[in-house]
Design brief:
The protein is of the alpha/beta class and 729 residues long. It contains 20 helices and 32 strands. Helix 16 links the parallel strand 27 and strand 28. Bound molecules: adenosine-5'-diphosphate and zinc ion (ZN) (2 copies). One zinc ion binds next to loops.
Length: 729
């Protein structure tokens, strides 16, 4: 007897499998670890994933039900184990962990997406004879046979020449045509940005890096299997990844290349496609569900063996995985926000470990974690032989307050770009027109009714918008409290800089790139293409998106208007983030050309800004790692955050206090429990959080997981939502 142990796909924390089912002979070929089954469950039928196949059950056979059916495709066994590991590591449920590794489009309700098949039609010799000898044929039948010629056509193509299914079936019954059905691939559309497939000769630094990865792929004994590729912006890291992937392919193994957000790196993706063609599958959210499903299937069936995608691609069903590359490994997009709030970098490390793959993390601005734990390869120079751009720091504390958000020094540099017909990138890390709106007569400040934050003026849509919830209201003409028209805006966002620069630099085109302009499918690529192709130069204004991953040769200026904005977040990673943002943006300038960088800031001597201005990652990391060591922050400890929220402040406080108490009782040694501490309200929900700082990660994760499970099973949470974030960002 074959028993399938099935973990139900449900969101209820209290419902924990696996549950045993008896596999009937009719299904035995289709059931394996990773199969998705529809099973009877009490009075209902639900979906579940097979996590184990066994020969016997502890339950008597007559108590075991049989699955109703197996769905079209399931997950590879290796990934089932990884999904369950993620569930444990991030204090989530098996069902949520498994959901990460299932074919795209699988939900509790089933598989919304399936393969698309097409009927292919070809003429038989009898058909050819009939056509030639002028046999008895209807007009439509003749049309179809003629269209077929001596080739094969799909039903879609036949339809365009007037064929229809009924006629084809009639011909088939007469033996004049043969049909078979095949799966058709819904391929991702060609990207708006293209790249050539040319293969530059690697420089000696690149050669050294590739040789080290190759040694690891070849399984040489003393080769490190986890590498940090630390290369300045423009040093040619992508070429190293490509060479490494080709090496893995030559060994018959597969590879995964993670990029922060695929929409933000169309150029890198285009380069991979140009070089590796159909062996690549793309997995990202900009695909239609059908395209995603087909790309996933191509990987699982071995038709493609390299996957390029964002953090979720760490779960791509690449068989015999030899290499995982994480490009821009410093990027916080690798950390998810859902449940499980997994970090793709941690998962990649685990997956590489489990299947003996080599892990390569590349960046110009490594995280302290990677700096101290990975074996380093350096690319200290730009691949085009150019120098790093000169960085000028503009101290905004001394600037004339009436001068507006763009300093005269920056304006002068932009004027030069305009007169020379070159390109400039301007970063201001806030979207909208202005972040504060206040009445000067009565002092009324426009805040969100649901969240404890200011409403942001959006001129373009004519609304005041909350950036934390969906709230939006028309821009007022006068104060809603006192009727005065003395409304005053403060601060600046992307819209304001866009209109200010457009007015000053006309006719130079000024393009804006932020989540508002890039909201529709493909818009991001179109904006970047418009910027790259503008014949007489252009300016690109936007949020952090403008600083990421693209490579345009004649950008001669990049400017950051509010470089210390990210420093003001109360977060131990603020310095690290600011350093990365400034360095990355600076790196966009001066590729193939002399370049300039201007950094406007209120904190010119902050280590992150001063080191970024000198392109000195090593110096920055030395100081930052020392600071972390003194404060006992990661990587010298691990953090776990328990987030609680409720519409009811009273209930929330009680629950948060209880959670804090239980965590203190259950904590392992070397662990501090901080809080509960209040956080600002979002979407009408009050929030509290408890922070766990520990030297014993596994024990602390287990303790927190047990605490949450106990709360769920006691049903003690009532109106309070709880979430666990391991390694919060
Ligand atoms: P990074 O990812 O390190 O920022 P890229 O891989 O985007 O750098 O490379 C920057 C530019 O240098 C690209 O235009 C790339 O084609 C070019 N390049 C890379 N390696 C070489 C090389 N060995 N010789 C000449 N050009 C190169
Ligand atoms: Zn007022
Ligand atoms: Zn809000």
């Amino acid at each position: 007897m074959t028993i399938a142990r099935v973990e139900p796909l449900t969101t209820a924390r209290a419902l924990r499998g696996p549950f045993d089912y008896r596999v009937p002979p009719r299904l035995s070929d289709e059931v394996d670890v990773g199969s998705i089954l529809r099973v009877p469950f009490g009075p209902r039928r639900i979906l579940g994933v097979v996590v184990e196949v066994a020969g016997a059950s502890e339950l008597p056979p007559e108590r075991l039900a049989e699955p109703v059916e197996a769905l079209e495709s399931g997950a590879p066994p290796e990934l089932v184990q990884l999904g369950l590991w993620v569930a444990r590591e991030y204090c989530s449920t098996p069902s949520r962990g498994l959901a990460l590794v299932l074919p795209p489009g699988t939900g509790a309700a089933g598989q919304r997406v399936k393969s698309r098949t097409e009927l292919r039609v070809s003429i038989t010799s009898a058909g050819a004879d009939a056509l030639e000898s002028g046999g008895r044929l209807g007009a439509r039948q003749r049309l179809v046979l003629e269209a077929l010629g001596d080739g094969e056509l799909g039903m879609g193509e036949l339809a365009t020449s007037g064929g229809d299914l009924a006629t084809v079936r009639r011909l088939e019954r007469r033996g004049l045509v043969a049909t078979h059905s095949t799966r058709v691939r819904r391929g991702p559309a060609a990207p708006a940005i293209s790249a050539g497939g040319e293969r530059p000769r690697l420089n000696p630094d690149q050669e050294t890096a590739v040789a080290r990865i190759a040694a690891a792929l070849d399984g040489e004994e003393d080769a490190s299997r986890r590498l940090l590729l630390h290369g300045v912006t423009g040093s040619g890291k992508t070429e190293v990844y490509l060479a490494a992937v080709e090496r893995a392919l030559a060994q018959g193994r597969g590879a995964i290349v993670l990029v922060p957000e695929i929409g933000l790196t169309p150029q890198a993706v285009a380069r991979f496609r140009a070089r590796l063609g159909d062996r690549i599958a793309l997995l990202h959210s900009d695909l239609t569900p059908g395209e995603r499903y087909d790309e996933w299937r191509r990987l699982r069936d071995g038709e493609a063996s390299v996957c390029v995608g964002p953090r979720s691609a760490v779960f791509a069903p690449v068989g015999d995985l030899g290499l995982i590359v994480i490009d821009e490994e410093h990027d916080s997009a690798y950390k998810g926000e859902g449940d499980p709030a997994y970090d793709a970098r941690t998962v990649a490390r685990e997956r590489a470990e489990r299947c003996g793959a080599v892990l390569v993390c590349g960046t110009a601005t490594p995280r302290p974690e990677s700096w101290i734990s990975l074996s380093r390869s350096e690319l200290p120079r730009r691949a085009d032989g150019g120098g790093m751009p000169a960085v000028r720091i503009v101290d905004m504390r001394e600037a004339d307050r009436r001068g507006g958000p763009v300093h005269p020094v920056t304006l002068a540099a932009l004027d030069r770009v305009a007169s020379e017909g070159k390109r400039a990138i301007v970063l201001i890390n806030r979207r909208g027109f202005a972040p504060w709106l206040t009445c000067r007569s009565c002092g009324h400040h426009y805040g969100c009714p649901n969240c404890d934050v200011s409403l942001i003026t959006h001129r373009h849509s004519g609304n005041l918008v909350c950036h934390h919830c969906a709230h939006s209201e028309p821009l007022p003409g006068s104060c809603g409290e006192c009727g005065s028209v003395t409304l005053s805006r403060a601060g600046a966002g992307t819209e304001q800089i866009e209109s200010l620069l457009a007015a000053r630099l006309a006719p130079l085109p000024v393009l804006r790139l932020d989540t508002d302009t890039a909201a529709t499918r493909g818009a991001h690529g179109r904006i970047l293409a418009a910027f790259a192709d503008a014949p007489r130069g252009a300016v690109l204004v936007g949020t952090q998106m403008v600083g990421k991953g693209h490579d345009f040769p004649d950008v001669t200026l990049s400017a950051i208007l509010d470089a210390d904005a990210t420093l003001r977040f109360p977060d131990f990673r603020a310095e690290e983030r600011t350093f990365a943002m400034v360095t990355q943006l600076a790196g966009r300038s001066g590729r193939g050309n002399a370049g300039d960088v201007v950094v406007q800031t209120l904190a010119p001597s902050a280590p992150s800004i001063a080191h970024a201005a000198r392109h000195d990652a090593q110096g920055f990391l030395a100081g930052e790692i020392e600071r972390r060591r003194e404060l006992g922050y990661p990587p010298f400890s691990h953090l776990i955050r328990v987030n609680l929220s409720s519409e009811e402040a009273g209930r929330l406080d009680e629950t948060a206090a209880m959670v804090g108490r239980r965590l203190r009782e259950g904590a392992p040694g070397e662990t501090d429990i901080l809080g509960p501490a209040p956080m600002f309200r979002v979407r009408g929900r009050h929030r509290r959080r408890v922070l766990i700082k520990t030297g014993r990660r596994a024990d602390a994760v287990a303790a927190v997981g047990a605490m949450v499970e106990r709360l769920a099973s006691e049903r003690g949470l009532k109106d309070v939502a709880i979430g666990v974030d391991v390694d919060p960002q």
